[in-house]
């Protein structure tokens, strides 16, 4: 009897550097791939419409590339993560699958779903093999001297480097199977009812597109990354986050290709490349936080005392923020970039998130949700980490009294106002002198709004709210 395997694809939609796929091909005579979608779950996790449309395009390409290896890809719909394990088991039993392979996801719901799936499959005498493809080290493995999980990036990175071995980056190519599996199930179309306004042509789908984007960035931009990464108009970053978020590209591939250009150095050589690899390690750090501190997946702040902060709630301010009409050009330009491109430059994510949580003093969880609902690269741990950093509620967080001034940020990182003018056409004729803080003119024809708040008083209000929460917890 041929050994039959099933690869359960999730956020690893690629052939390159896919340990579950490689093992399935090594161990089985016939292999199928499966992707199981739940619109309810997608909505529960606030995943965006544009990310869904990107997912569907990538699945179509994955199906074609898997067929070259004689592996059919089936898509199924399920109600939720709760119903999924049973559906996966039914599929496996109906198709006489002996072994199921997958790459781990680290969210709390995902881990529960996976554990239950493994249990049900084992009860059906189906073997389960699980791998890590999103990180270099299994989450939780790197520990402080006291044996605790890391909660600060710099020592985490130090330990990450100390233990690093080039063998971690050995990447094998998958080979084609001799024979295709015959299945008793038909693939079903992914069910969804979503539309979006993002220009999806900015994000060509598939592994080849991801690889081209990576090599283009490494060849042309990575060496200057140290200087250019903070300037939104220069576009000096890789824009590979949507590909990493769905696993169309692996972080190991990114690190390997970066190191190849830097004489296989991690800490010396070109500063731009080292800094860029650092960012991939930040991603791994936030995955560790999600794994070691499950409270962050349960809507809780990392710093417990910040749970007592009295956040404000103002519907009008929220509406203006969501539309990119706060009256602060750099904040609005960032928000509008996200609404039109599905992506926002990192510097602006920090500026926008800090403005929301400090000057507006609104709950970071609302901002986190807004980003997830609009980003094509929505990634729970990086988004949660970024919001909690900006709100000073998280690990490694910015101290609560160090609050970015959006006007100074604008002058420093968009000195000529080019980025602002690109995303806020109402301001295209405003002079350089006024672009960061447009003058309010009663008779102006521009419908760009007046600032929604006063920076000085709102800053003091935020500091007071954090202080009060801290004192309340110390008393
Ligand atoms: C409030 C806030 C929300 C964020 N939400 C997300 C999100 O939902 N998804 C997401 O992928 N990133 C998020 N980030 C991190 C960062 O902004 C994006 O990863 C980056 O802008 C993506 O652009 P790039 O691919 O050009 O990055 P590059 O600068 O080219 O970096 C390469 C890769 O490193 C990783 N990376 C870079 N910066 C960070 C960081 N600060 N934290 C974790 N990983 C990082 C990303 O995977 C990125 O693709 C958020 C940051 C903040 C401050």
TrEMBL record:
Annotated site residue numbers, Electron transfer via tryptophanyl radical: 311, 364, 387
Keywords: Chromophore, FAD, Flavoprotein, Lyase
Pfam families assigned to the protein according to its UniProt record, in alphabetical order: DNA_photolyase, FAD_binding_7
Stretches assigned to the Photolyase/cryptochrome alpha/beta domain: 3-136
SUPFAM superfamilies named among the record's database cross-references: Cryptochrome/photolyase FAD-binding domain, Cryptochrome/photolyase, N-terminal domain
Any one GO molecular function term: deoxyribodipyrimidine photo-lyase activity
Ligand binding (FAD): 225, 237-241, 276, 279-286, 377-379
Cofactor(s) this protein requires: (6R)-5,10-methylene-5,6,7,8-tetrahydrofolate; FAD
Domain of life: Bacteria
Annotated cofactor note: Binds 1 FAD per subunit.
Family: Belongs to the DNA photolyase family.
Name of the featured protein: Putative deoxyribodipyrimidine photo-lyase
Species in which this protein is naturally found: SAR86 cluster bacterium SAR86E
């Amino acid at each position: 009897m041929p050994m039959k395997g099933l690869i359960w694809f999730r956020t690893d939609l690629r052939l390159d550097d896919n340990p579950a796929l490689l093992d399935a091909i090594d161990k089985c005579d016939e292999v199928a791939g499966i992707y199981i979608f739940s619109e309810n779950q997608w909505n529960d996790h606030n995943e965006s419409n544009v990310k869904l449309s990107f997912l569907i395009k990538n699945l179509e390409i994955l199906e074609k590339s898997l067929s070259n290896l004689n592996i059919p890809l089936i898509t199924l719909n399920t109600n939720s993560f709760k119903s999924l394990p049973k559906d996966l088991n039914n599929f496996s039993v109906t198709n006489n699958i002996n072994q199921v392979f997958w790459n781990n996801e680290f969210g709390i719901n995902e881990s529960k779903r996976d554990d239950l799936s493994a249990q049900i499959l084992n009860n059906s005498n189906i073997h389960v093999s699980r791998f890590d493809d999103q990180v270099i080290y299994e989450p939780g493995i790197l520990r402080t001297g006291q044996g605790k999980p890391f909660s600060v990036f710099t020592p985490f990175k130090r330990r990450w480097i100390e233990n690093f071995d080039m063998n971690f980056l050995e990447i094998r190519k998958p080979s084609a199977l001799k024979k295709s599996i015959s299945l008793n199930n038909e693939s079903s179309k992914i069910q969804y009812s979503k539309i979006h306004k993002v220009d999806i042509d900015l994000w060509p789908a598939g592994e080849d597109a991801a690889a081209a984007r990576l090599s283009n960035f490494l060849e042309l931009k990575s060496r200057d990354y140290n200087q250019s990464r903070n300037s939104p108009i220069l576009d000096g970053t890789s824009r590979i986050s949507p590909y990493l978020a769905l696993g169309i590209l692996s972080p190991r591939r990114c690190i390997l290709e970066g190191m190849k250009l830097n004489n296989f150095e991690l800490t010396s050589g070109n500063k731009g490349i080292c800094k860029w690899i650092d960012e991939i390690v930040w991603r791994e750090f936030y995955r560790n936080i999600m794994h070691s501190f499950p409270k962050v997946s349960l809507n809780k702040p990392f710093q417990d005392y910040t749970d007592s902060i009295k956040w404000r709630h103002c519907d009008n301010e929220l509406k203006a923020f969501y539309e990119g009409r706060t009256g602060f050009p750099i904040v609005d330009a960032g928000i509008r970039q996200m609404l039109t491109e599905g992506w926002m430059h990192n510097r602006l994510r920090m500026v926008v998130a800090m403005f929301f949580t400090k000057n507006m003093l609104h709950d970071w969880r609302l901002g986190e949700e807004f980003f997830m609902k609009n980003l094509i690269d929505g990634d729970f741990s990086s988004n949660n980490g970024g919001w909690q950093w900006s709100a000073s509620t998280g690990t490694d967080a910015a101290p609560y009294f160090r609050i970015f001034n959006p006007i100074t940020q604008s002058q420093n990182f968009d000195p000529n106002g080019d980025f602002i003018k690109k995303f806020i056409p109402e301001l295209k004729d405003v002079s350089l002198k006024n672009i960061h803080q447009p003058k309010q003119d009663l008779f102006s024809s521009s419908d760009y709004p007046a600032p929604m708040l006063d920076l000085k008083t709102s800053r003091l209000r935020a500091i007071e709210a954090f202080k009060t929460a801290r004192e309340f917890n110390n008393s």
